[in-house]
Every structure is written in C-alpha cells, then in structure tokens.
Amino acid sequence: MVLPSQFWSGRSGGFLRDEYEYGNLVLGFSRKVGSTSSLSAKLWAIKDGLTLALNRGFSKPVLETDCQVAKILLNSKNNRFPPLTVILSDCRMFIWTRCMGCNSHKSFGKLCY
C-alpha cells in the first residue's frame, strides 16, 4: 500500500476580524509556504496573522484556530519538535507576551482583537 506524502506544496492564510458583534472582516492574508506539512502551514498562518494584527495596532489579539494539534503545541513548553521549533517559538512569543490567549474554533481559523 502506498501512502501519500505528509508534505505538500501549498499556502497558508487567514483573516482578521474586528471585535464587534458580527466580527466584520478587516483583512485577509495568505502566503506560499512551499513543500511543508499541513501543521507547519497552520503555524505559518498563525504567525503571519499575529504579526499583521500587531503591526496594524491591534493591542490584544485573540487567536482562534481549528487545528487542535497547533493549539496543544503552542500551549506546551516543550521545544523538541524539529523542524517546527523556530516557528513554534515565534508564535509562542507573540501569544505569551501580547495576546489574550489561544482558543480552538470548530469550523475555521480566525484572528480577532
């Protein structure tokens, strides 16, 4: 039996919403991530979204993601996940120092403030 590769050439992305009742779309973003895993692409989307939110003056962004594995890794203090160590460290730095937390969302990923 031949299994598909864990790695694929793809994109990561997400969107920023405002804090109001209806969560109006503020900004969408995407990036080509090249040959990577889906988990790595999710982490790149988280890092890019947090970077954009903070650069645009969102003072306390709230991260929501549909990726439970990313949430577990981001909330972990274990740094032994090569080749994800650097991207995890970058995301954790944003979350632990500037964000209000990391929540799971069942249907899609989003970044809010």
What does it look like?
The protein is an alpha/beta fold and about 110 residues long. The chain has three helices and five strands; from the N terminus they run E-E-H-E-H-H-E-E. The chain has helices at about 40-55, 70-75, 85-100, and strands spanning about 10-15, 25-35, 60-65, 100-105, 110. The protein has a five-stranded mixed beta sheet with strand order 2-1-5-3-4. Helix 1 runs parallel beside helix 3. The longest helix has 18 residues, at about 40-55.
Give keywords.
113 residues; alpha/beta; 3 helices; globular; disordered C terminus
Helix content: 25-40%
Mean of residue pLDDT values: 77
The total of beta strands comes to 5
Distance between the termini: 46 Å
Structural class, please? alpha/beta
Brief summary of the model shown:
With 113 residues, this protein is of the alpha/beta class.
